[in-house]
Amino acid sequence: MKYCFTHVCKQTVLIIILVSLANTVSLFAQKNDLIIKAQELLYSNPDEAIKIGEHILKTTANPESKIRPNLLLTRGYLVKGDYDKAVTFAFNSANNLPNISLPTRIEINLIKSEVLRKLYLDKQAKKYLQLATDLIVSLPDNTRKDSLNTHIAIEQIKMLLDRRKNEEALQTIQDVQNTYKTFLSTNKLEQRELYLAKERAFSDLTKFDSAVVYMNKTLVLLDSTLPNNLYKKAEIYKELGNLYLQQKAFKDSEETLFIALRFSEIINNPILLMQVNRDLAINYLATNQKNQHKVYNDEFLVLNTQVELNEQNAINTVFNMLSKYEDIKIEQAENKYTNALYILLSGGLIVFVIGLLIVLKSEGRKKRLKEIINYLEVSRTNFIKSKPNKKTTSKRIAIPEETEQAILSKLKRFENSQKFLNKDMSLAVLAGKFETNTKYLSEIINKHYNDNFNTFINKLRINYIIEKLKTDPNYMNYKISFLAEESGFSSHSSFATVFKAIIGMSPATFINLLKTERAEIKSKSDT
């Protein structure tokens, strides 16, 4: 009787284990099917793909299992043109776990680089692209390695095109086509990306005959690669409409841009919508259709403001998340260092070392403060004069010399005023005040100050508040929120983020160092 009872118990336990295992396998299979379904919808119905990704995240407890939905959601929000949310999922802490497979780590670094490149954070974008490149070396030679190498090269090419380094981009494209000729012959999606990149480069160089050739090659491969990719169709037809516009084929441009507009509306991407509305407005202006021009230009201005706000929020999110990640790394390193000291040294020696480190750190921070103040004094007087060295001979936007000098003169007066403290100041608003277009203004700021518009404005605001802190001691006693409002920032957090990005330390740390410096100067003068 006892034997039968024991046997029944063992069978029961075995059945429970098998049922539990079967449920786990079934749940994993269901989530895998959902991810595949979301990937199929990504470029045609990104909203639905995002819903699926968010559902998977909510029902996943294991951090390692969150990586694939994180990548899916990052891509989904990139398709939607929402860079702020794309940043959130691209830099999620789960993506930094140590046991991630090598190909997935490469993919994570690639998508981080893409997000940062779109936000014009080139230094950080190149860092993650280099990390991906270094990791690929460890992969065996196969089709997957060729695919990843090609995607890295395409990302490098897009960065060159975005920065108008067209000749360098064309040379890189040629190198990729020569190196991965076999791979590209059977992988039309990557080949199509290279054709479109060539079209962009030739179009920007005003070599329209060559641009037309590669646009036609792109269109041939469009439906044969991803027939339901509305995002890519919107991008390609936008490029084609712009090419027609530059050739002054206004009717063809209008028809093509309306196709791009329809695809952009379906996926609801404000960046694509902004660009298409801008080109339509230019088209109608060129053909003297004033009413139509006003409609699409007004829509462009609304979308431009929306896009600029999202990009600024995304940049703030990037710096906050990177800062948080660095703080964690520093904390881990400090913990490891402290444990080693406890093992190797006596308590008295530890106190001595920590005291010494505090003194050295304090002196270093004081030295850093002096360097920052010297930098600000120099940069304030040389803000207009300093121009970047021309690194390439890439063709820029053709702006008449008279127009360029007029805009530069207005920029100089703008810097000497305090209009940059206006919270509503944007590229579109300033262009309107200067009676010019945003493209000219953005190009001139980039050319003469080596910055995009947001960085240009932020530097003026930070220089302004630093000058106030240096010349008026009362400002050191004000709250950070007051300093943020005084210098034209919309919030305490955005001010702190930008301040740290430009100066290298938080506002509170800078003020404390400035107080210490002044106290020491006063003490020396008293003695």
From TrEMBL:
Transmembrane segments: 12-29, 340-360
Endpoints of the signal sequence: none
Molecular functions per Gene Ontology: DNA-binding transcription factor activity; sequence-specific DNA binding
PROSITE patterns: HTH_ARAC_FAMILY_2 (PS01124)
Residue span, HTH araC/xylS-type domain: 421-513
Domain of life per record: Bacteria
UniProt cross-references to InterPro entries, sorted A to Z: Homeodomain-like_sf, HTH_AraC, TPR-like_helical_dom_sf
Keyword annotations: DNA-binding, Membrane, Transcription, Transcription regulation, Transmembrane, Transmembrane helix
Keyword Membrane: yes
The keyword Transmembrane helix is assigned to this record: yes
Pfam family, one: HTH_18
The protein, known as: Helix-turn-helix domain-containing protein
